[in-house]
Amino acid sequence: MTLIDRYLHAVRGFLPAAEQDDIIRELSDDIHSQIAERELEAGRPLRDGELKILLQQLGHPLVLAARYRPNRYLIGPTIFPIYWQVLKVGLIGALIVHGALGIAMIAGGRPVQSIVDVFARFPFTTAVTVFGWVTLVFALVDRTQLPWLRTWDPDKLSVPRLDEPQSRLPLLGECIWSTALLAWWVFVPRFPFLIFGPGASFLALAPSWQQLYVPVGVLWGTSLVILWMLLVRPDLVRFRAGARLLTGAIGLVSAALLLRAAPLVVPVAGTTVESAEGVVRLVNLAIQIGLVAFICITIVEVMREVWRLQRARSG
Amino acid sequence: MRNTPPHSEAGHIFENLRLELRRGGLVLAVLGQLRAEQYGYTLKKALADMDLAVDEGTLYPLLRRLESQGLLVSEWREQDKRQKRFYQLSDEGRRILGQLSSEWRRLNAALDRILEDV
User: Fold this and answer.
1) Is A217:A185 a contact under the CB 8 Å cutoff?
2) Number of A:B CB contacts under 8 A?
3) Which H or E run includes B69?
4) By the CB < 8 Å criterion, does B46 face chain A?
């Protein structure tokens, strides 16, 4: 097999199957035409080194074959900035959850080495999972090309308010992130490691939590529908403050229900893990602190929307 | 005019812009050249003789794309004891070439006016 045959064989491997024969025939003819011309000019057969240079000029087989393929990407430039934002938030969020669990485990008397192991595994377990799911969701979104991106109406563009951020990216990011969180909520009962991570072996959700699971999920879903409505219907901007108030109220009700139902986490029945009780106490405390913080932030947000509404009405 | 060193950042920027500038012109050149039937290698040589050198990795995929868009037709025939693929403008290609040529002349005239003092 000559060097040219080997080169063409390598190129063939990277070409679309249906066009391989055709493309290789044409490339082969081109290479032989170039050789014939150079040999005619030199008055002698081409040397091995010269042939090698000629093939190098054609490019690496992978590079040459790639020119015959259409440009491909998993997530296009249109939604890539939102994907990147959501991915960063997701990874940082997962890291914070691991950190909180790690602190709880140390406080509960677990050996430090086990926490180090959890963090050492983070890039290969949770981080990969978050990366995979976020990428998959955005790849699907990119394939479907959200219909409102194609059929938008300039008349429906919102009138910017002075106190409103100009970019809609944060709202889109919020919608996608909230959708991912709702998906997480749906899968938590079946896969406890989604909420407890490595602690799933000795931590379980309390019965009181299970009673609230559906109502809170429905409230959350309602809030999500409102968020998406705000995004896809910019003409509803006049209802934005009201919708924000509604989603804020839904968030407050959900958090208050969960807070009332505390404790939400119990040790797995018959667990042999030492100090499981201590970890459970700390996790419940962390959840309560988190819920109280969420309620405080939401109250501030709701008050801000009320203030905006009043200001808009007064002129 | 001061030349830009090819490996400097400005050199890369110039090279990218130059390729961008050439891309549309190359399509027009290929269509123009294929008013008469040619195969890939002679087309490549004809373009190079007119100071529009193009490598195989650019030319052949472009020919396939133009053919899939219906602007070219091709057939395999034997010449000089080797099978060669001959390309030629289709009727649709001829129509598009006419439109693109007018557009090119308009663009060229506008750029000439804009760049008169450069």
Assistant:
1) yes
2) 44
3) none
4) no
The DSSP line for A146-199 is -HHHHS--GGGSPPPPTTS-S-SHHHHHHHHHHHHHHHHHHHTTT-THHHHGGG
Quick check: B56 and A27 CB within 8 A?
yes
- Cβ contact B40–A26 (<8 Å): yes
Contact A309, A241 (CB under 8 A): yes
> Closest approach of chain B CAs to the CA of A149, in angstroms?
26
Residue pLDDT, tens place only, A68-86: 987 778 888 888 888 888 8
Q: Which residues of B touch A64 (CB under 8 A)?
A: 56-57
**Tokens 């219907």, residue located:** A233
| Torsion, Cα of A36, A37, A39, A43 (10° steps) | 130
Residue of B26, B41, B76 to mutate, interface with A, max A Cβ within 10 Å: B41
* Pairwise CA distance, residues A100 & A286, whole Å: 8
Task: Verify whether the Cβ–Cβ distance B61 to A68 is below 8 Å.
Answer: yes
Do residues A13 and A26 touch, judged by C-beta distance below 8 A? no
Q: How many CA atoms lie within 13 A of B50 on its CB side?
A: 12
On chain A, the residues whose CB falls within 8 A of the CB of B40 are 26, 29-30
Which two three-digit tokens encode residue A114?
Answer: 């086990």
pTM: 0.55
CA distance A120 to A113: 10
DSSP 8-state assignment for residue B85? E
List chain B residues with CB under 8 Å of A57.
Answer: 55
Identify any residues that bridge with B86 across adjacent strands, giving them in sequence order.
Answer: B39, B75
pLDDT digits (tens, 9 = 90+) for A180-239: 888 888 877 777 777 777 777 778 888 887 777 887 788 778 888 888 887 777 666 667
d(CA A204, CA B111): 72
Which residue of chain A is at minimal alpha-carbon distance from B59? Answer: A67
Question: B70-74, long-range: CB within 8 Å, 24+ apart, which pairs?
Answer: B71/B31, B71/B96, B71/B97, B72/B34
